Each structure stands twice: as structure tokens, then as C-alpha cells.
Amino acid sequence: MTAGSLDSSAVASAERRLLAGAVLLAFAAYVVLGWSVTPELSTQSLLYGAALLLLFWFSFKLPIFPLGGVGTPAHLVLPALTAGLGGAAWYARMARSSTLDVLTADYVRTARAKGLTDRRVLLRHVLPNALNPIVTMAGMDIPWFVGGVVLVEQVFAWPGIGRMAVEAIIQVDIPLIMGTVIFTAVLVVISSILIDLVQGIIDPRIRRATGHAS
After folding, report:
1. Under a CB-based contact definition with an 8 Å cutoff, are residues 129 and 102 in contact?
2. pLDDT at position 214, please?
3. Most CB within 10 Å of its CB: which of 1, 109, 148, 182?
4. How far apart are CA 31 and CA 152, in angstroms?
């Protein structure tokens, strides 16, 4: 092994350590600054830090996925994973709490007393009622999700509507800004309608109440 190869490997190792330190420092700074301002900003900061860490480990350190852009399904893995990390813990905790509440309900005990199997009780009685608050919160979190997508698109160079809106604001492109705002508003309205329809499907009480009202 020559001295030149040793020097190049040492430089490459130093560059990797420097990049790792910069990523960790950026992650810590965003977390600290986020908690010092508002919890919402802290959530976005954690999302940004998670995106940087995923890029470092799975695109640079372990080149499994591409660094950014579009073109193949592999380009979608890290952005989708980052966007889902923002609410994963919250929804998991809500699902656990809602399921435990439903398991202690009288109709669940009645279903078990009638001799139904645990699988049927879970799928027919517990799951639809436990999903109701989760579906409601998912509809309310659509605006937050759109805001988080802006960071994800910026980090992963994904040519989406969030990145386009940011570029329109920087360039003061008023028609494009108005278009993205209207599109986002329509998306929120449509998602709210879909949430109401899904709630009527999974909860028979809502269907009966709607039928009586009509």
C-alpha cells in the first residue's frame, strides 16, 4: 500500500467523520432551537434532523437508497419514511390508548360472553371503535402533514408542491403562491369529507344518526 493511498483513505475517513459531526450538530441545534420556541417547531426540527440522519446512514454511509430526486421507487423510501416518522409515535400511543378503552367496554364483554372468538371480537367490535378517534385526528393533521412535507421535499430534492411553494415565495410569484394555497385548501376540504365518509363506514352509529337526520 502506497503513501498516496494511505493519504486518500485518511482524507476520506476524516471527511466522513466531519460530515457525521455536522449532521449531529445540525440535529442537536434544530432540536434545541425548536423546543425553545414552540413544540410545533420542535416537531418540524426533529423531522428535519431525522431526514438528515437517514440521508447520512442509508444514502452516504450505507449507499442503499439514492441521495435525492425522483425516478425509481427507491427514491420514495426515505422521504416517505421521514414524513411518517413525525406522527408515528403519537398515533401509536393513541391507538394503544383507544384500544385499551374499547377492550373494557360492556359490548366487548357481551361479545365474549356470547362465545365469539378473540379474533372476531377484535376485528368486528374492537377495531372499528378504536379507529374512530385515530381517523378523526388523521383528518385534523392534514395541514400539519402538508407543512412537514415541505421540509422533506427540500432535504431530499423531491420536486413536489411544497418545494414549489417555497420557491414561489422566494421569487414572489403571486399566481403560483395563490395556486398552491388554493390547492392545499381544497386538499384539506376533500380530506375532511373523506374522513367523515370513512367514519360512517367504520361506525354504524354515525350512519344511523345521519339516516335519522335526513
Report:
1. yes
2. 54
3. 148
4. 16
Assess contact for 47 and 86: CB atoms under 8 A. yes
CATH number of the domain at 3-213, please?
A: 1.10.3720
- Taking the model in full, what pTM does it have? 0.63
Is the pLDDT score of 13 beyond 60?
yes
Domain boundaries, the chain: 3-213
pLDDT of residue 35: 46
User: Which stretches within the chain are classed as H helix?
Assistant: 3-37, 39-55, 74-103, 106-113, 118-121, 127-140, 142-155, 161-170, 174-202, 204-213
Instruction: Give the Cα separation of 151 and 105 in Å (integer).
Output: 42
C-alpha cell at 46: 426533529
